């Protein structure tokens, strides 16, 4: 069990059913009731969000010189990493060379502190977006953050709440449940008796982040094409995306609002397979977030879930549907799914934690995202490319027909496992060169979405490796079209009868072009990926 209540928790003291569960996907019997119109911390949040967004171009714009001391420290660490790679790793062959540079960059990030560790953690969940060696190495950053001393935690809480720790809590565990780059989490009990989790921000992290963003944005243009392990990345765009993400994480009032918004969306969609912890109606500030304590099985704990009679295939279906439906109907979703941010409750629901990164689409973005998903399921390539363009992945004046020709999308799809090593490498290089020539970039919304898909991919590997992915994606697409077809048709100006799922197109998205192959399990898909990876590694 993950985050199990202590043995001395009161037994048989069950509170009455909560009246806020009609509006939110909360626990059935909560420690308090959420009345959104009365939460003390909810005033002025739109202004706060707007102010933060205006900070991004200020902090990431080119300037004559960022903070010189921090610039010198960062430059020195990167120079040591690059120099060590040149001397010891560069000539060992592609896989070893990339692994060596990735390890040195990870060590540099750990020495540079929380901001760079946070960047590393984001990269670590970006399999498919970043080189595999870099992703694997930066996964080691997740648990490498030292906790703040308890005296520091006490000071932050008392400053923000305006009361002593003892006035607010009857007990407070000085040892953190978890320590991350931005904050750490403690278990406590309120003076009124409710067991809670308390998220406390590191006191100097705001200043560190602002200083580091200035350094990153100054260095980023010099790194374009100069880091072999990430030669295809766009460092300036990555810094901008990182800034947009991390700045909102620094205000826990926004995170609490994200919790309510996502819980409300799930309830409206009748996604009762999800559970969100209640933030406290009063004990939320910029640096302190008190919330209801939840417990359950770790997401990788297959054996315990099976022993409890939980259908792990259904867990995957709940995850896929909830994540996708929230995106296309309301344009909002949790932007940082990973094993530490969710678990499964004993009754088979998914509890979702840590809403610091929550994606919010504009109406235009949501419309483009909706088209991308629908046209993808229908096999409408021009519609898909136009949707990508409108999401910001391509310049606004991009010629759709030209993109289709340049990428070879007007030709019959090819199974990548049938290509030789040289053919595979050549095809990847051709596509990348074409995309770069078109000015392609990865918008924040799409990056977060792909990151979550990568997590779901890994979750399927653990919880349901024998699941037929083609059948599940087709069923999900058909279900969403049935449930929301009229609404989608009105938004897109088409007939609802035109939403027909193309299973051949879904199979092609997995690289399968053999019409005799109707479905594909995750285990089969993993074998195909390993075949491709081995051929690339030999290169």
Structure write-up:
- This protein is an alpha+beta fold and 539 residues long.
- It has a domain at 360-538.
- It contains 20 helices and twelve strands.
- It has helices at 45-60, 68-89, 94-112, 114-124, 132-138, 150-161, 165-168, 205-223, 235-249, 252-268, 302-307, 312-330, 363-378, 381-391, 400-406, 421-438, 444-463, 469-492, 503-509, 522-538; strands at 169-172, 178-179, 183-190, 195-201, 274-276, 279-284, 288-292, 297-298, 332-334, 342-344, 350-352, 358-360.
- Strands 1, 2, 3, 4, 6 and 7 form a six-stranded antiparallel sheet that branches. Strands 5-11-10-8 form a four-stranded mixed sheet. Strands 9-12 form a two-stranded antiparallel sheet.
- Mean pLDDT is 87; it is low at 4-12.
Distance between the termini: 44 Å
> What's the tally of helices?
20
Largest sheet composition: 6 strands, antiparallel
Give the % helix: 40-55%
Strand content: 5-15%
Counting helices, strands and paired strands, the structural category is alpha+beta
Principal-axes geometry comes out as globular
Rg from C-alpha positions?
24 Å
Counted beta strands: 12
Mean pLDDT: 87
The low-pLDDT segments are 4-12
């Amino acid at each position: 069990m993950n985050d199990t209540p202590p043995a001395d928790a009161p037994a048989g003291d069950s509170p009455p059913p909560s009246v806020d569960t009609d509006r939110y996907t909360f626990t059935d019997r909560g420690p308090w009731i959420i009345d959104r119109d009365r939460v003390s911390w909810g005033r002025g949040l739109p202004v706060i969000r707007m102010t933060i967004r205006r900070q991004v171009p200020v902090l990431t714009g080119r300037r004559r010189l960022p903070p010189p001391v921090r610039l010198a420290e960062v430059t020195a660490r990167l120079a040591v990493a690059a120099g060590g790679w040149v001397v010891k790793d560069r000539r060992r062959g592609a896989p070893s060379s990339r692994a060596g540079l990735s390890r040195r960059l990870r060590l540099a990030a750990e020495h540079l502190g929380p901001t760079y560790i946070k960047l590393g953690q984001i990269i670590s969940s970006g399999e498919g977006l970043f080189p595999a060696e870099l992703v694997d190495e930066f996964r080691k950053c997740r648990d490498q953050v030292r906790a703040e001393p308890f005296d520091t935690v006490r000071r932050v809480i008392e400053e923000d709440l305006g009361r002593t720790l003892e006035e607010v809590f009857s007990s407070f565990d000085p040892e953190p449940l978890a320590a991350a780059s931005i904050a750490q989490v403690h278990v406590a009990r309120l003076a009124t008796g409710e067991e809670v989790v308390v998220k406390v921000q590191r006191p100097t992290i705001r200043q560190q982040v602002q200083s580091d963003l200035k350094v990153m944005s100054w260095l980023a243009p010099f790194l374009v094409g100069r880091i072999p392990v990430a030669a295809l990345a766009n460092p300036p765009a990555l810094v901008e995306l990182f800034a947009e993400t991390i700045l909102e994480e620094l205000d826990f009032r926004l995170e609490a609002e994200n919790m309510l918004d996502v819980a409300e969306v799930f309830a409206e969609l009748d996604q009762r397979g999800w559970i969100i912890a209640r933030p406290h109606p009063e004990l939320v500030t910029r640096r302190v977030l008190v919330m209801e304590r939840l417990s359950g099985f770790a997401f990788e704990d297959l054996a315990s879930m099976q022993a409890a009679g939980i259908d792990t295939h259904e867990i995957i279906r709940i995850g896929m549907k909830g994540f996708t439906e929230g995106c296309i109907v309301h344009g909002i979703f949790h932007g940082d799914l990973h094993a530490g941010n969710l678990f499964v409750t004993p009754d088979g629901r998914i509890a979702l934690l840590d809403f610091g990164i929550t994606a919010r689409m504009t109406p235009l973005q949501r419309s483009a995202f909706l088209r991308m998903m629908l046209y993808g399921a229908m096999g409408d390539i021009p519609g898909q490319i136009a949707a990508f363009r409108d999401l910001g992945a391509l310049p606004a004046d991009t010629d759709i027909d030209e993109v289709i020709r340049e990428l070879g999308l007007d030709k019959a799809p090819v199974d990548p496992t049938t290509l030789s090593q040289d053919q595979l490498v050549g095809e990847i290089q051709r596509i990348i060169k074409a995309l770069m020539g078109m000015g392609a970039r990865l918008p924040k919304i799409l990056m977060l979405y792909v990151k979550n898909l990568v997590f779901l991919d890994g979750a399927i590997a653990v919880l349901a490796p024998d699941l037929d992915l083609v059948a599940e994606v087709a069923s999900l697409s058909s279900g969403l079209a049935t449930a929301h077809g009229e609404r989608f048709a009105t938004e897109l100006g088409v007939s609802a009868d035109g939403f027909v799922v193309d299973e051949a197109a879904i199979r092609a998205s997995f690289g399968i072009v053999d019409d005799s192959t109707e479905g594909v399990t995750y285990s089969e898909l993993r074998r195909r990926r390993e075949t491709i990876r081995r051929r690339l590694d030999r290169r």
